[in-house]
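Field log, afternoon session.

UNIT: design team B
ACTIVITY: writing a sequence onto a fixed backbone
BACKBONE:
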């Protein structure tokens, strides 16, 4: 597949074009999707452990509510740091290496919690696990997206989000079984040896991204990966050219700041839209997922009913992911996001007026859980496609960090000020205003990326 010198280089397709026009095969791109999806599933599993560990450790160590809150807060802060750190590292050392390291780090430090008997050490380990965990999502999406053919990329990246409710459900079921059978809070943590084993699957089944290799000037390695994928998919053998590129600077402590500058230098419009969308939509999601049981109990619902209804809201999200996967290419990224995010938030506004109606509450919770999971996969797909290869990991990572800020501060502001001042419906109404403003900003400043070839 070497370049034919008798044919003008401009007449040859590029390596990127060949890669992104291959047929989809489960034994090729599919195995990358599965390995990446399992990593995403374990992300959800690890995050969900916070909700399980807080009541268990509160009883084990006689913690106050404020002390126990640090278990989740430390993990969330670590995720914010990790989203920036690993997005930048992935753009410098490669998607494959970064993905393997994120899996290993959050597994090791989650397991380290088994060995501690104090809150201080446990909080530190949850922070460090979060550093690995927060990096897995942006690296994961960059890796899977760069191997997926352009005409399938929207559905594949949207389907990635289906691994999240699966991981959250497994965390609950497996932890309930382990605690119910043996009664030891350490056992759910021991289950996190599984992501560490996934590192071996990364080494065996996931090649390095040819787009990254070309950015590094490793043309021979990039050609080997592309040629291998052409062979494995059964696509016609074609001559192609690999454009020479300048290698990025070596990874250093200043790399994070340098990469942030590149993210903004690429396009202030794209970065502004990415950050605002993540902040508005993900803050609404985190408010609902963290505070809905409390809101229902305050409205007079029994504790078990509050937990069951909230669990149903999360579980039905898998249906939303399926719907999102079907619609994302038919409607386009922007159109689907512009409709689904405001509709999901509007359901919470109606919920605020209907807390005294049990049937309405159940239907609205299920509706919100489904529609918000139509929106979130499209958001992840859209933002990952807005950036070019050299800043895709860090661009997504910085946007993800903004969402973690919303996750940490948004629910606190909502519960401490917005809900007491404006009432539940009014507080969700303010959230709806923010989501609509973000969507309008997207429609004005950012392009659609449906079927666009990644550069």
């Amino acid at each position: 597949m070497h370049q034919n010198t008798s044919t003008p280089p401009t007449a040859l397709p590029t390596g990127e074009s060949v890669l992104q026009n291959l047929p989809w095969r489960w034994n090729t791109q599919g195995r990358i999707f599965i390995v990446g999806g399992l990593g995403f599933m374990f992300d959800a599993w690890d995050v969900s452990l916070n909700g399980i560990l807080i009541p268990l450790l509160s009883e084990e160590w006689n913690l106050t509510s404020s002390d126990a809150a640090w278990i989740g807060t430390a993990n969330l802060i670590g995720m914010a740091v990790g989203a920036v750190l690993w997005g930048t590292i992935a753009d410098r050392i490669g998607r494959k290496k970064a993905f393997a390291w994120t899996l290993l780090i959050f597994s090791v430090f989650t397991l380290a919690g088994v060995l501690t008997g104090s809150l201080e050490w446990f909080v530190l380990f949850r922070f460090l696990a979060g550093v690995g965990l927060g990096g897995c999502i942006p690296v994961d999406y960059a890796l899977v997206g760069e191997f997926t053919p352009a005409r399938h990329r929207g559905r594949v990246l949207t389907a990635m989000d289906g691994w999240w409710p699966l991981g959250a459900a497994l965390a609950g079921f497996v932890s309930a079984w382990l605690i119910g059978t043996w009664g030891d809070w350490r056992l759910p943590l021991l289950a996190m040896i599984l992501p560490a084993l996934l590192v071996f699957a990364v080494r065996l089944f996931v090649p390095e991204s040819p787009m990254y290799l070309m950015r590094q000037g490793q043309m021979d390695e990039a050609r080997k990966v592309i040629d291998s994928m052409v062979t494995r998919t059964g696509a016609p053998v074609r001559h192609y050219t690999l454009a020479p590129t300048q290698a990025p600077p070596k990874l250093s402590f200043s790399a994070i700041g340098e990469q942030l500058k590149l993210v903004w230098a690429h396009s202030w419009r794209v970065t502004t839209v990415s950050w605002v969308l993540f902040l508005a939509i993900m803050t609404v999601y985190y408010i609902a997922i963290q505070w809905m049981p409390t809101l229902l109990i305050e409205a007079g619902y029994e504790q078990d009913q509050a937990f069951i209804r909230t669990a149903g809201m999360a579980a039905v999200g898998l249906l939303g992911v399926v719907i999102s996967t079907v619609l994302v290419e038919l409607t386009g990224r922007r159109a689907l996001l512009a409709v689904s995010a405001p509709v999901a938030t509007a359901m919470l506004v109606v919920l605020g007026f209907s807390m005294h109606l049990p049937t309405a509450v159940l239907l609205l919770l299920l509706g919100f859980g489904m529609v918000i999971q139509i929106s979130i996969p499209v958001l992840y797909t859209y933002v990952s496609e807005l950036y070019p290869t050299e800043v895709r990991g860090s661009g997504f990572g910085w946007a993800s960090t903004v969402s973690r800020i919303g996750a940490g501060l948004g629910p606190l502001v909502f519960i401490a000020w917005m809900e007491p001042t404006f009432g539940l419906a009014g507080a969700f109404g303010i959230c709806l205003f923010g989501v609509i403003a973000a969507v309008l900003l997207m429609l004005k400043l950012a392009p659609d990326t449906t079927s666009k070839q990644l550069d």
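LOG NOTE: The CA atoms of residues 346 and 432 lie 6 Å apart.
NEXT ACTIVITY: expression trials, pending approval
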